[in-house]
Amino acid sequence: MPINLQIALWGVVVVLVAGTLIIWSKRVFRPSDSDHELGLRMRSWWVMAGLFILAIAVNRALGVLFFGLVSFLALREYLSIIPTRAADKRMLLWVYLAIPLQYLWVWLGWYGMFIIFIPVYMFLLMPLRMLIGGETQGFLKAVGTLHWGLMTTVFSLSHAAYLLALPNQVNPAAGSAGILLFLVFLTQFNDIMQYVWGKLLASIKVIPKVSPNKTLGGLLGGIATTTFLSWLLAPYLTPLVGWEPLAAGVLIGLAGFVGDVSISAVKRDLGLKDTGNLIPGHGGILDRVDSLTYTAPLFFHFVYYLHY
Predict the structure, then answer these.
(1) Which DSSP string do the residues of 138-193 spell out, in sequence order?
(2) What pLDDT score was predicted for residue 205?
(3) Which residue would you say has higher pLDDT here, 32 or 101?
């Protein structure tokens, strides 16, 4: 494992330890009703970060398997909250089978099939399978919601896994795992900083009808902080040079915001607060990876076309 990647992984552990100490200090010196939820959130961060670090530190196979499991859980959660027709029950098997096939292309490094399997083949085959059933009532809504869910939870997230399939030689600083760590860390950091800046800089509501707590101050503050951290970390974890780390920071900051509010729009449409309760203190798996569904494909192609 490249030394830069080792240092970065230990850095994540240090951040988690610092966060735990801060929450403990708050609970001791300034207790409040929010302490329990903060404690749950921190414990969940330890579990999520631990699994992620283990997945990328052992080998590529485990990393790909990890993201395949995340996609499965996210898709299952999505299918549990959207309305489906009785006629679509058999179709769901096809939808779930797309997960191992998509991640097989990732494991093989077969970029051509990886990039078209869900957007083209599943897009064409899913309506055909539905038509065989002969049910046309609600057909357009069903095929649209199922394919959007597949694109979001499987195709988009699989781009993060495909970073592990990129040649390590192009990024001697930290290998392909370093690029993945850079993406995931900045995406989650951006979520946190947009929340923090939103609390510190109460300002104009960006999209109050979708997410009333999102403010312009939070959006701009999060993007600025993420861009600075991208500029700081890129030389040690990625092949990005010159203007590229700054552009990557803006891209991740803005895309993370759009991914977050897109899932918020789905929840608001369905009248839900969270997409699930799988992760204590955070809600469902979609609540945690919503930003990554946008940052993963956009950042992947940014890096791929510039350096691969």
Answers:
(1) THHHHHHHHHHHHIIIIIIHHHHHHGGGS-GGG-TTTHHHHHHHHHHHHHHHHHHH
(2) 87
(3) 101
> What are φ and ψ of residue 34, in 5° steps?
-85, -5
| Residues whose CB falls within 8 Å of the CB of residue 234, separated by 6 or more in sequence, listed in order | 182, 240, 244, 245, 248
Residue given tokens 């909250």 in the structure block = 81
Calpha distance 206→217 (Å, rounded): 9
**Structural contact between residues 75 and 150, judged by C-beta atoms closer than 8 angstroms:** yes
DSSP letters, 190-219, are: HHHHHHHHHHHS---BSSTTT-TT-BHHHH
Tokens at 241, concatenated: 């040079």
- Pairwise CA distance, residues 183 & 251, whole Å: 11
Q: Which band of pLDDT confidence, cut at 50, 70 and 90, is reported for residue 207?
A: confident
Q: Is 228 helix (H, G, I), strand (E, B) or coil?
A: helix
CB 98 within 8 Å of CB 55:
no
By C-alpha distance, which of 141, 140, 131 is closest to 91? 131
